[in-house]
Amino acid sequence: MNLILIKPSEVLVNIVDDQRSRYVSLSKNDHRTIHIRKHLHKKSGDAVSVGILGERKGQASVQLNGDGSATLILLDTAFVQPPTVPEITVILAMPFPARLKALWPVMSSFHAVTRIIIVKGQLSDKEFCETSALQPKVYEPLIEKGMSQGVRTRPVQVDICVDECHVSKELLQRLGLLNDNASQPDDVARLFLDCGDETMIPPPAREVVLKHCTRNSTPKSIIAFGPERGWTDEEASTFVNESKFEAVSLGSSILRVDTAVIAGIGVVSAALDECQSRINDSESNKKRKKLS
């Protein structure tokens, strides 16, 4: 846990002699209190990194109480607005439940991942779609764990679409994943992960992401990952032919779902960061020219 995550509803306000301070009370059994005491070995007066979910990151002063609880006094002057970072939407066909449960915190640890959509692939096991790993009470704490690890406060939107009969253009349209103006590119890199065949391997994911990089907007990508047995030809046609996704690869190796998801997000995230760096450099150059 590299960041103590706090929900806005947990922040309390104390006013003494017209001095306003914000603080958070954590019980002794709260996993954050245990982490502060046993893993960070903090003492009263020490500072810890905290982040308010959906808001800013900053520092808080720790106060350890005699009953085992902890109080975090937010140091308002230390709070900063997170920088603009790229956005990734992950489409994942329902994998083996244990793999999905392990993937929730990993996916959400990446700064760029802002949305995770679980769909039912044609080769997904129907019984998998009944797993508790699809319930908010299970995945929400796992997502928060990943956000703490990744030192991020931007929330992750989750859409569970396993009740749909199959992946269709209509479903993707309803989820807002397609370009409404087909005649005008929208600069979103829509990637369909495909290992290819013996005769042809699709282009590298990084190459396709950089092709969509422009200086006009925050870099964005949508990545579609198949289940253990992969996508069917019909699903490939839905994504690539009907919905204008581009088939890409992570190399010639055939990867397990969990490995492919981690590798894919990592490659795309790095490429989007490269795009964002180009945008920032361009804006800096423009400001220098105005000042000169």
TrEMBL record:
Pfam families: Methyltrans_RNA. Keywords: Cytoplasm, Methyltransferase, rRNA processing, S-adenosyl-L-methionine, Transferase. It is an enzyme of class 2 (transferase). It is found in: Cytoplasm. Transmembrane segments: none annotated. CDD domains: RsmE-like. The keyword Methyltransferase applies. GO terms for biological process: methylation; rRNA processing. GO terms for cellular component: cytoplasm. Residues 87-268 form the Ribosomal RNA small subunit methyltransferase E methyltransferase domain. Its EC number is 2.1.1.193. InterPro entries: Alpha/beta_knot_MTases, RsmE, RsmE_MTase_dom, tRNA_m1G_MTases_N. Its main location: cytoplasm. The keyword Glycosyltransferase does not apply. It catalyses: uridine(1498) in 16S rRNA + S-adenosyl-L-methionine = N(3)-methyluridine(1498) in 16S rRNA + S-adenosyl-L-homocysteine + H(+). One of its GO terms (molecular function) is methyltransferase activity. Belongs to the RNA methyltransferase RsmE family. Specifically methylates the N3 position of the uracil ring of uridine 1498 (m3U1498) in 16S rRNA. Acts on the fully assembled 30S ribosomal subunit. PANTHER family: 16S RRNA (URACIL(1498)-N(3))-METHYLTRANSFERASE, RIBOSOMAL RNA SMALL SUBUNIT METHYLTRANSFERASE E. This is 16S rRNA (uracil(1498)-N(3))-methyltransferase.
